[in-house]
Structure formats: C-alpha cells, structure tokens
Amino acid sequence: MARILGTGIATLDIINTVDGYPAEDSEVRALAQAVRVGGNTANTLSVLAQAGHECRLAGVLAGDMNGRRIASELEWRGVDLRHARRVEHGAAPTSYIVLNQRNGSRSIVHYRDLAEFSISDFMDIDAIESCDWLHFEARNCDDLAVMLAYARSIVTDQPISLEVEKERAGLEALWEYPDIIIFSRAFARGRGFDLPAAFLHEAHLWAPQAMLVLPWGDQGAWALTQKSELHHSPAFPPAEVIDTLAAGDTFNAGLIHAMLSGRALADALLDACQLAGRKVGQSGLEGLFAAPAAQDNVLCPLSSLPNPGSRGFEVNDGGVIRAIFVVRQGLEAYGYLNNCPHLHAELNVTADAFLDENRQHIRCALHGALFDIEDGRCFAGPCMGESLTRVDLSVERGLVVCASPLTVHVKDS
Predict the structure, then answer these.
(1) Model confidence pLDDT, tens digit, residues 25-45
(2) What are the structural domains, with CATH classification, of the chain?
(3) Under a CB-based contact definition with an 8 Å cutoff, are residues 324 and 337 in contact?
(4) Closest CA to 6 of 55, 78, 52, 68
(5) So what's the pLDDT on residue 189?
C-alpha cells in the first residue's frame, strides 16, 4: 500500500440530528447527537487508512481537551500524526452541524482559533520525496503556494492533488503546481457555473497541466484530462440517504485510492462515486473499505452504537445460533453471551436494552443484577461474584468484528 501525506485541517464535529431543518429563531429538540473527528483532510486520510494505506497528517493540533480527543481518534483510525504540529495554546477547530434526518442534508457553523500549518512546518517534514502521494487542502493560500512549489521541486513522479472546496484569496497562485485538482460543486457555482463540463473547460485554462475533477452530488462526477477529454460517472445513491457529511472527503479518498491502484481515470471516477454513495447511506466513515469476505463476521460499525450503548445480535457459531450482545464504551467494544448466570435467562426484556439507566453498568432486567462493562463480573444482585461469559470481539477499521467460530471465555467465580 502507498504512503500518503495529507496537508490540511482536523476538527471536532458536534452533530445534532433533527427531524427537519429548524426555522430561524425557533427551538427544536435533537433526535440524536454524535461527536466525532472531522475536517476535509482528516476525513480523507481516515478513509484511505481503511484501505491499508500509510496515512500521515500535516496539520496543527491544539493542546486543549478537544485537541487531545482529535489526536486520539485520528490515531485510532490509523492516521499517523508524526508530522502534525502540536500547540499548547488555542482552541481546536469545532464544527457545529445540524443534520436533517428527512433528506440527509447538513448545515455547518465552524469556529476556529488556531494557527495554520506554516511553510516552516512543512519544510521540517523529513523524506517528503519518499511519499507516494501528496494531498493538499486549499487554505492559507499564500503559504500553501510555497509548500506546493517546494513539493513540486523535490518529488519526481509522485502525484500532487489539491482539493478546492470554497473561494479563498490567493487561489490563483496554486493552479500551476498540482497534477490533480478536485473542485467542489459549491465552488463551481460560486464562480457562476451550473454546468460541470463548462466549468471544467474554464478551469483547464487556469491549470492546463492538471487533471480536473468535479463531483456534483446526485448527478455523479465529471473529470477533464490534460488533453480535454471529458469523463462522467453517474451517482450511486443508497436505498436511503442517512448522512451526507464527509461524502466529498470520501469521494476524494476513493479517487486517490483508485488511481494509486492503477485504475484509469474513468474507472477511478466510477469507484469514487460508488464509495461516496456508500458513505451517504450510513452514519460515519467506518467500514467503507470493508472486504466483502469479512462481512460475515462484521456485527456493525462502532459509530452506529451509542457511546455508551448496547445492541443484541444473533451469530452463527459453527452451525449453532447464539444470542450475544455488544456494549460500546468510548473506542472499545465488549461482547458477552446474552445469558445471565443467575437463572441462565436472557438479560434484556426490551430490544438492545442491556445497560442500567445511567448506562454505567450492564443490568439483568429480570432481577436487577449489575455487571461491570469491562470484565462482566457481577457486583450487585443475586449472582454477585459470578461473571457473564465473554465473547471475543475486535474493532477493525471502525467495524465491530466477532471471531469465527465464536470464542467464549468463562471466568472462574
């Protein structure tokens, strides 16, 4: 797999899901809330890491609580932070997102009080020339122009890609350096274009050396080669639109992965649209590159579980169907047979309800026995001192996976 260096931003996203976008000066109750790492480059690298690439972030991370949370989750996703600059002062960038459950659309309010990644930060990165792909997010354009020029001077045949999401001062200084430029639909429309092909032909005048790409939501995506050959891929909408957040970042990851895999531009465009469609049909980024052969052992994306939260499953254990349940606590998942050691009955009466009111402990709904989430030992109730039967689980690329055949551990009382 390839070594990919991504220069850009990492944020903390606070996502409130609502049943219809609220009117101005109104108050609505959120149906659900999720807090996770976002940011264009951070998301793209997170998806690429799922495909097995060695992904490194060149960006700035704050030393506050949110900054530490961002760093921890990115490392858990498999993103290498050795080239990130850590600062003690300043606040981690935060995006407050309203997600409309009815159609998957989102509105974002972004707050940032943190220094940008600088020229000197970029030049301090050792062995840039050893990377197989360099990806940049178009921001802080004066410094970025120098970074691009420097990168162009030391790499040989490694592609340099640039994502242009929004209008910024100084963009014109960037056009001459990238091999691939990925524009957003909002940027093209902001420049007065409603037809993707017309925009790409105009952009070709700015960057004739580059391959130009333009995803256009439910109409698919277009690309224009250096020889003005136009390609189009249709969109691949899911059966239900769940979450459009980070669909563009996922598209970028799909395109980069496909081209690193040797796919021709038309095929890479197709792959990127398929991956973006898959993303829109789920919440979060986990499991987008899950191998089909591994799906039998996959229980669910970790992000689909509340934190903390629980869910019951039935699994095939060598021809025997067993009832198990999974409890999420932070970035960990714990699995147990759904069997209380008191009367050997199932713990839950209501579907997926395996925790107490405060979601601090596992509880048997029949007689109130309480168990530790981490080790399953009963500390209160009629079977105190006994333990639930643990099931081996792992979290792989954001997916909760069980062993096959099922591995269970009975702890001595």
Answers:
(1) 999 999 888 888 999 999 999
(2) 3-280 (3.40.1190.20), 294-409 (2.102.10.10)
(3) yes
(4) 55
(5) 97
